[in-house]
Structure formats: structure tokens, C-alpha cells
Amino acid sequence: MYVMTTATAPHPASTPAPAWARRAAHAIALCAVPSGLWRIAMASGVHVGYSDQVLRDVFDIPGWGIAYVVGLSVLTELAALFPLLLVSDRWRPLHPRVLAPLAWSASGVLVLVALWQLVVAFTAESQTYMSSGTAQTVWGFAFAPLFAIPALMTSVTWSYAKRHRARGTKAYSLPRP
Length: 177
Fold this sequence. Notes:
The protein is mostly helical. It has nine helices and no strands. α1 (19-31) packs antiparallel against α4 and α1 runs antiparallel to α9.
């Protein structure tokens, strides 16, 4: 005799994510690639605008700094893949009641991180390490896509919460006015 429990019950069908939300989730993953490649180039010894002395003294490259910079690139890309869970129709590791608040929290953190990065990018300290000219321009182009992530993540999260609220689950969402 087969007994259906909440663990074995099939997930109720939800409406598929709109095409724009799918594109936004994929764009988030792509936005993290240029800065990751820039960091990996830095760890590989490619001149990215820092002097050899700054790489040794500030970033500990060569040394443990290589593991830190490459690890940061890997973690950033893994985090950038998270929004794909919000548009996936096949794989749902977490219940919407758990995933929606997690996604809203991630959106908020991303907004704060983006604001903090703007502050860091324009402080005198960050400008003193990087050589001027082409290196700063390349750095700017490599890291500029990261500033699109908070808006993209918020829109994908909003779409997810709206879809799951519409189908009757009590997923966390913004309060209605």
C-alpha cells in the first residue's frame, strides 16, 4: 500500500516563468563572467593594472592570494547561478515559502553590495593601487556588468513571488498597497 506524504506528494504545477524573467536570470550569470575572468587573469600573473609590488604586498600574489582570487571568482559565479532556480520548471530544491524570502534577501544584499562597491570604486585608496589609463578602463568594463545584477535579481525575484502567490502558495512577497 502506497501512502502519500508531504515528502512524496507531487509539486503542484506552477505557471512557467515568463521569457523576460528567464532572460534576466541568464543575464545575471553572464554579468559575473567578465569580473571573474579579470580576477583569474590577475591570479595568473597577467598585468591587470597592479604593480608586482602591489600584487605581492596587498593581494599576496603569488601565494595564498591566488586561491582567494580564484575562489572569489568561483563563488561569485555560483551565486550568480542562483536566480536560475527561480525560473526553473524542473528542479525545485526548496519550497517557495523558503526560496522566495531567500531570494528577496539576496536582492537586498545585492543592492547594498552594489552601493558599497560604488563607494570603494571612487575612494582614493582604490585609486592609488591601480595604474591609470587603459588598466582602469579595462577594470571598469570588467566590473560594470555587476551593477546590473541587483535590478535583474529583484525583477526575477518579483516574477517568482508573483507566480507562486498566483498559484495559491503563501510564498513571501512584498505587501500589497
